[in-house]
Design a protein that fits this description.
Helix content is 28%, strand content 20%. By secondary structure, the chain is an alpha+beta fold. The protein has one domain: QueA-like. It has a 3-stranded antiparallel β-sheet with strand order 1-2-3, with helices on one face. β1 and β2 form a beta hairpin.
């Protein structure tokens, strides 16, 4: 099956995509003319949350991005990182808080709800991850001196925990490739001690991740408080600071 996109200034179909397969609820597409990057640039829109009731603008293309972003590839920004600007990063550095970076290209499957009765039957989407030697050295040094590893966003959590699951000792070593790690209540976390994260959608794998990390009841209370106090959810929403539950210790 072919999908065609109209030219900006005429009725001529200029860019063509072929549907090559299906992966769960998502379709695999391959460009036959033009490129995916060009199609996204010309026809894509920023995924504004429902409480921003307007069309997206060019300014949103700049704002819907973390200040430390380096490479294209994700379908959405790691939204916990949107709370950090350069002055805040400089202030953290000034008080001795060190930071390191990972790469995870957020995939469309992130937004897919869990549709099975038993979460163990859920087939997780795959996302591309890079955890380099410099990151491993920084994290391991932090742990050795008794510091805490605080991940900014569930994407950072998935990256570090995926890298640690390469070996039986669960040590953080460099990792590059796809991950389909699914972290749900009952799973253990081996690298991350705390995280900053936004509020996630019901029935999402990310909601299950934070429930696994801090405990189901803790997350229920946090979300009940967020709803009562009218916190904002989704991409431009509020964030919370989570620590590992005692069961994870």
């Amino acid at each position: 099956m072919l999908l065609v996109t109209p030219d900006d200034d005429s009725d001529v179909s200029e860019l063509t995509l072929r549907v090559t397969g299906r992966e769960g609820a998502l379709y695999a597409l391959s460009p036959e003319s033009g490129s995916l990057k060009e199609m996204m640039r010309r026809f894509g829109h920023m995924p504004l949350p429902p409480y921003i009731d307007r069309q997206d603008t060019q300014e949103d293309r700049d704002r819907y991005q973390t200040v430390y972003a380096r490479r294209e590839g994700a379908v959405a920004a790691p939204t916990a990182g949107l709370h950090f600007d350069r002055p805040l990063l400089d202030a953290l550095e000034a008080v001795g808080i060190q930071r390191t970076e990972v790469t995870l290209h957020v995939g469309a499957g992130t937004f897919q709800p869990v549709r099975v009765e038993d979460i163990k039957d859920h087939v997780m989407h795959r996302e591309y991850v890079e955890v380099d030697q410099g990151c491993c050295d920084a994290v391991n040094a932090c742990r050795e001196r008794g510091g805490r590893v605080i991940a900014v966003g569930t994407t950072a959590v998935r990256s570090l925990e995926s890298a640690a699951r390469q070996n039986a000792e669960r040590l953080l070593t460099p990792f590059q490739g796809d991950t389909d790690i699914f972290l749900y209540p009952g799973c253990r976390f081996h690298i991350v001690d705390a995280m900053i994260t936004n509020f996630h959608l019901p029935e999402s794998t990310l909601l299950m991740l934070v429930s696994a990390f801090s405990g189901v009841e803790t997350i229920r209370r946090a979300y009940a408080s967020a709803i009562e106090n009218r916190y904002r959810f989704f991409s431009y929403g509020d964030a919370m600071f989570l620590t590992k539950s005692e069961a994870q210790s």
